[in-house]
Amino acid sequence: MKIGIIGAGPRGLLMLNNLIQNFESSDHDNLTIHLFDRAVAGGRVWKVKQPISLIMNTPANELSLFDDGQKDALSISEWCQSNISKEFINSLDVDNKDELLTAVNKINDRSYVPRAICGAYCQWFFQQLVEQIKDNDNINLAVHFNQNVDNVEKVKNDSFVVSVGDVDYPVDKLVFSLGQQENKLTKDQESLQKYANDYGLTYILPGEADEADLSTITSDQNVIIRGMGLSFNDFVSRLTEGRGGHFTDNGDDTLTYHASGDEPTIYAGSRRGVPYYPKAISQKAFNENYPAVFLTNENVDKHLKDGHISFEDFHMLLRLDIEYRYYSFLFSLKHPEIDVEDFQKKFKETDNHNALIGSYHLPTEEVFDWDKILNPVAGVKISTLDNYQEHIKTWLKEMIDDALLGSKTGPVIGSLEMLRDLRDNIRYVLSNHLFTNDDLVHKYLGRFSSDMKFLSQGAPAVRSQEILALMDAGIVKIIGPQMQVIGANHKFITRSAFYGEEIIQVDALIEARTNAPVTKVSANPVITSMMDNGLIKPLPITLSDGETVDNSSVDIDIKTDQVIGQPNLYTWGLNTEGLYFVTSAIPRPGVNDSILRAGDDIAKGLLDIPVENPTIYM
Ligand SMILES: Cc1cc2nc3c(=O)[nH]c(=O)nc-3n(C[C@H](O)[C@H](O)[C@H](O)COP(=O)(O)OP(=O)(O)OC[C@H]3O[C@@H](n4cnc5c(N)ncnc54)[C@H](O)[C@@H]3O)c2cc1C
Predict the structure, then answer these.
(1) Same domain membership, residue 497 and residue 436
(2) How many domains does the chain have?
(3) Per-residue pLDDT for 616 more than 80?
(4) What is the pLDDT of residue 228?
(5) Ligand 1 pocket member 458 (CB < 6 A)
(6) Which residues pair with 563 in a beta bridge?
(7) Same domain, 399 and 305
(8) Distances (CA, A) of 85 to 5, 45, 50, 475
(9) Mutation probe of ligand 1 site: the residue of 45, 117, 576, 617 with most atoms within 8 A of C-beta
(10) Is residue 584 within 6 Å of ligand 1 at its C-beta?
(11) Coiled-coil segments, which residues (predicted)?
(12) Structural domain of residue 210, as residue ranges?
């Protein structure tokens, strides 16, 4: 039996682990696994050789590649704090060893680990698997690292040939998890790229922030960063600390930036005009989740009409869970006169939540306002770039202070943290197709997904402290909402629609985001060849008016994660985003993580072992 795994990122490694763990229970006498990646074990995101200042956005104790209960399992935090990590890093043939060792010695359970260290953890994990395979005469591993798979074809008996250049690898079954994609350029990107080429400007397309060539951006230049999520923080870090500047701690939860003089002036913006919310300092144990009180599967089921929950009912349940946490934290922190348990009981029982909150006579600014959370600058008079800086700084400072209180204390950031705990509840709605297709397309896939990223997928609070310090130093300026960018006068120019006459001209434009994982627009040859060869297609969605649109996900059977029509082909991870929810995280130990369960189920499927209660990612 030959199984191919394309992608040796965390999912590819989880698959390898689960194939090894499950092999003994299968009826197969021997197994050869072909593992392919353009990079090495750990994959492209988790390169060991990348700037040490680029950090993860999940606390160290919430990350593991091992299955719960697996022998000798170490989470990334346990690994970093053991001698095993130091010995392993010392054994690596890399020139940033000293930097890695200094960083690993500083890690505690709640640290945000440098991504390079997570890369070392992935490589160590892989080494453990290789050792296990060496001891097993019936499993062979053929590793194809630093190789680009450029074609996948189906041959006889529903088996496949995976091609790397001129070399073909026949496999009986295949699983792919390709992570971030390269996409076909949009018309806008094509024209901006042409403009940059014509006038000697720098244009950085969406992709991996640590790999982009920033060498043409000089200190006398202005640069636009479009997008204010995680990639924004990476680019800012590379253009500031990465150029010799440094931060000092003022001892009052603020930082001061000391410039090296090599930094360009950064104009950052987005449609919303506000950087992502910071992550709270974690106060949770590694396996601690707040369960849903309102968006429970049972409550969702109660709202079903003809098998569907309306988006509005779904959103109301989700909001109630956030508000429940918000007021619980707020009352504990600021209103000792209010009995939190009594509030919680009443909030769960009442049909009129607004009236209940009204009965506490809170000052207006303490009443939870969802619209304000989604649009923190709503109602603010924005008339110049300069006065906008002051609004953003005030908001950032408030959010940083809240985030520093901790994930079980800060009312705003602590309650938004709930959105991570609710992921499986959202997955339940999505993968069981409980939205109507119209609600899915018009209300969930567009706005809601983007809102979730803004609220819950930001960087650790220290990144927001850094942005604030860089704004104070005049190196970063945030453009107001509805940022527009065009090429004109041999420059890229940008402005906010709110103060249209203030135009900023720059020499470099950075698209600070990874490409959306959309099957139809992917330019990854694994996807394009499988589409061309009729192996995969996007999941179709038929709307009530008869129009059919494509989901971003590959069309798969959610019970097995098999590609529809291909019994021996499986996919998971970002290739299924849109059908599943947040498909790219590294699993969390001790919480029966759905990623770990899915990995086990798929491995069983590949080995023809029956799966009794399929995961369906929830
Ligand atoms: C900058 C950044 C920071 C992140 N930080 C965090 C974080 O802090 N915490 C967290 O949980 N998640 C984080 N993520 C999400 C991250 O994607 C996941 O943690 C994890 O890497 C997903 O694993 P994966 O195996 O599904 O995909 P990936 O890790 O992306 O691995 C996919 C692999 O497939 C390979 N591949 C693709 N196409 C081909 C081909 N044609 N031929 C050969 N190989 C191919 C790629 O080289 C890649 O190595 C981050 C992502 C990015 C981009």
Answers:
(1) no
(2) 3
(3) no
(4) 97
(5) no
(6) 556
(7) yes
(8) 27, 19, 18, 37
(9) 45
(10) yes
(11) none
(12) 187-276+473-511
